Automatic annotation (TrEMBL), chain A:
<feature type="transmembrane region" description="Helical">
    <location>
        <begin position="20"/>
        <end position="41"/>
    </location>
</feature>
<dbReference type="GO" id="GO:0005886">
    <property type="term" value="C:plasma membrane"/>
</dbReference>
<keyword id="KW-0472">Membrane</keyword>
<feature type="transmembrane region" description="Helical">
    <location>
        <begin position="150"/>
        <end position="169"/>
    </location>
</feature>
<dbReference type="Pfam" id="PF04093">
    <property type="entry name" value="MreD"/>
</dbReference>
<dbReference type="InterPro" id="IPR007227">
    <property type="entry name" value="Cell_shape_determining_MreD"/>
</dbReference>
<keyword id="KW-0133">Cell shape</keyword>
<keyword id="KW-1003">Cell membrane</keyword>
<feature type="transmembrane region" description="Helical">
    <location>
        <begin position="73"/>
        <end position="99"/>
    </location>
</feature>
UniProtKB/TrEMBL annotation, chain B:
<feature type="coiled-coil region">
    <location>
        <begin position="76"/>
        <end position="103"/>
    </location>
</feature>
<dbReference type="InterPro" id="IPR042177">
    <property type="entry name" value="Cell/Rod_1"/>
</dbReference>
<feature type="region of interest" description="Disordered">
    <location>
        <begin position="276"/>
        <end position="298"/>
    </location>
</feature>
<dbReference type="InterPro" id="IPR042175">
    <property type="entry name" value="Cell/Rod_MreC_2"/>
</dbReference>
<comment type="function">
    <text>Involved in formation and maintenance of cell shape.</text>
</comment>
<dbReference type="GO" id="GO:0005886">
    <property type="term" value="C:plasma membrane"/>
</dbReference>
<keyword id="KW-0133">Cell shape</keyword>
<dbReference type="InterPro" id="IPR055342">
    <property type="entry name" value="MreC_beta-barrel_core"/>
</dbReference>
<protein>
    <recommendedName>
        <fullName>Cell shape-determining protein MreC</fullName>
    </recommendedName>
</protein>
Length: 181, 298
């Protein structure tokens, strides 16, 4: 798979394109995933899936490939999430940025840790983020919102992360690997 | 790629997080200060994605067991027999209804009854029933508005049987309908034959709850719930649902509209000059309020 020392090869147009596409892969998949999960598949509690997917992507890429998911992109994805998910504009942008900050702060501990540790950490982060979203939205709308969606989001986060991580790890080693370009 | 000096790049990367956080918090403030901004952007995105949603939801609706076209194939003969039976029964009722209508017309004629204005309506297919984590709404495909996209905002959405919700934002080819089950939905209703007033409040669950009924007249189980013209948002007398007491003995409304499986919605734009009490204009308040106040005086 690795074709010799990459530095010595000439920087042709195709190689630049390859690098750029690999670099843009995580962000692109995040946006595409948000739109695809928004499709009316008729799944129960489908709306709770979208923030979980966004959180999982932000967490994973901030942990293993932070350069591929710059903060402006995270903020934009948060705004998109708010627009698609009918939450107050900018709310999820703030939460996703805080999640990214927390992940990058814990990166030295989490990146070399075993999978079960990163899984547990993500579940913890997701529960805190979902609770934060609930509290912030309740505050913004001046009304106590039902808390069951937080439970669903937490369950989805805990249950779907291993599945998502498997796909993301594969992408991390192939399609998103800038160093292989 | 733009080449930047290393210290500048470092400073930029260090600054990007606080900058973005500030920008996001600013967005929250903007969205708070002017909800129209987010409504407009959302309507644009909905317009963009509506054909995509429709392409996905079409086959899924067809394949759905029970309600979809493929589900129907398995129960054709049974359904046929059932429909024939129902048809015979309904024909009897039709005669009763026609007799009652004739009687009603005669009574109205002797009462100098002013008929309520006929609303304009457009029928739209439901492209997606998504909503958010804390919201219940559906996206309806509407015929292209000729420049005036805001004309649909506030329209009452009904399926074949009852009120499903109200249009909260409209774009060029799609409109978002806030369902009566949404936690932000508040609809003044009239209960039963006496028309006792109450407020139907959504709670994000399947059955909206009833609030503020008159202390002497608790809502009766099985009473019909109709819209009321109080507040001027709804025309009076549209069927909404039936009163039911839940396990906690709180009155809720079982909606007539099948909100879980909405396929087609009719959007009724009622004219501004409803004959009943309408303190609040039906359209958005920013459309020349001064002129409206003037015309109301006459």
């Amino acid at each position: 798979m690795v074709q010799g020392p990459a530095l010595r090869r000439p920087l042709t147009l195709w190689r630049r394109l390859d690098t750029a596409s690999r670099w843009a892969f995580p962000g692109f998949m995040l946006v595409l995933g948000l739109i695809v999960i928004g499709m009316p598949f008729g799944l129960p509690n489908q709306a709770a899936l979208r923030p979980v997917y966004a959180m999982a992507c932000v967490y994973f890429w901030s942990l293993y490939r932070p350069a591929s998911l710059p903060t402006p992109l995270v903020a934009l994805c948060g705004v998109l999430l708010d627009l698609l998910g009918l939450s107050p504009l900018g709310l999820w942008a703030v939460i996703l940025l805080l999640l990214q900050l927390a992940t990058i702060a814990a990166r030295r501990r989490l990146a070399p840790a075993r999978f079960i540790v990163t899984w547990g950490a993500f579940t913890g982060f997701a529960i805190i983020a979902a609770g934060l979203a609930w509290a912030a939205q309740s505050l913004l709308e001046l009304r106590l919102l039902p808390a069951t969606p937080v439970l669903w989001e937490s369950l989805f986060a805990a249950g779907l992360y291993p599945l998502l991580a498997r796909l993301l790890i594969r992408a991390h080693r192939t399609a998103a690997a800038v160093e292989l370009a | 790629m733009i080449r930047l000096s290393v210290p500048f790049r470092q400073a930029l990367s260090r600054l990007s997080f606080p900058l973005m956080l500030a920008a996001s918090l600013g967005t929250v403030l903007i969205g708070r200060a002017d909800p129209n901004v987010s409504d407009r952007v959302r309507a644009g995105i909905d317009d963009l994605l509506a054909p995509l949603y429709h392409a996905v939801s079409g086959p899924i609706q067809a394949a759905e067991h029970g309600t979809g076209a493929i589900g129907h194939l398995f129960a054709l003969s049974q359904e046929n027999a059932q429909l024939r039976e129902q048809n015979a029964e309904l024909l009897q009722w039709q005669e009763v209804a026609m007799a009652l209508q004739a009687q009603n017309n005669a009574l109205k004629a002797s009462l100098n009854y002013v008929p309520s204005p006929t609303p304009q309506f457009s029928t739209g297919e439901v492209a997606a029933d998504l909503g958010g984590v804390y919201a219940r709404s559906v996206l309806v495909l509407v015929p292209p508005a000729d420049g005036n996209t805001q004309s649909l905002v506030g329209a009452v959405a009904m399926d074949g049987r009852g009120v499903a919700g109200r249009v909260v934002e409209a774009g060029e080819r799609s409109a978002r309908v806030l369902l009566i089950t949404d936690i932000n939905s508040r609809i003044p209703v009239a209960l039963g034959a006496s028309g006792a007033p109450a407020l139907m409040a959504g709670n994000n669950g399947p059955d909206p709850s009833l609030l503020y009924w008159a202390p002497g007249q608790p809502p009766a189980e099985g009473a019909m719930v109709l819209t009321s013209a109080q507040g001027g948002a709804f025309p009076p007398g549209l069927p909404v649902g039936v009163v039911h007491y839940d396990a906690q003995n709180n009155p809720v409304v079982l909606p007539l509209a099948s909100l879980d499986a909405l396929r087609l919605l009719r959007l009724f734009s009622y004219p501004d000059n409803l004959p009943e009490l309408t303190p609040i204009p039906h359209t958005k308040p920013d459309s020349k309020p001064a002129a409206k106040a003037h015309s109301r005086k006459h």
